[in-house]
Request: fold
Amino acid sequence: MKHDLQSARHASDLEYEILRLTPHAWVPNNRRLPVLLYRRVLSPSRKDLGPAFEALFARNEWPPQWRDSIFDYHHFHSTAHEVLGAISGKAEVIIGGPGGLVVSLDAGDVVLLPAGTGHCLQATEGRFQVVGAYPEGQQWDIRRDALSEGEIAAMEALPFPHSDPVGGREGPLLEQWT
Reply:
């Protein structure tokens, strides 16, 4: 699987990493939109990051829908983009499907996954949990199989979110997903 990881800094001083993926085996990834990985969005020393991430995502038009860990099997979502805010613990997550890139997530980090991006929990330290949110109007599915050409076309035609889940109308998503 081919991937390209680079670091960037937004004008708002928000540090993030850009991960561009290609399709791999049955995982389509997203040929047009990169994964964005934001480091230390919230201080891990805060007592409970859950409400803070939920408020941040909701304010930026990404309504939070659940709190839990990440599934420990390879999967992707074809009908919605997904943002995960790490609220406790630490994890290694495989991004891109089997044989993909392993990234570390610590409490306070955020990963933004465009529709089609494979992800799987590989290992954890402590009680790893995330808040999951999706753009307004998008309903997520769970896929563990290849998409048809029609499903890929529908996935790639999903509307762009109106705002970045972390930076709002000024965030990196608006620059990187154009």
User: Anything to note?
Assistant: The first helix runs from residue 49 to 59. The mean pLDDT is 92.
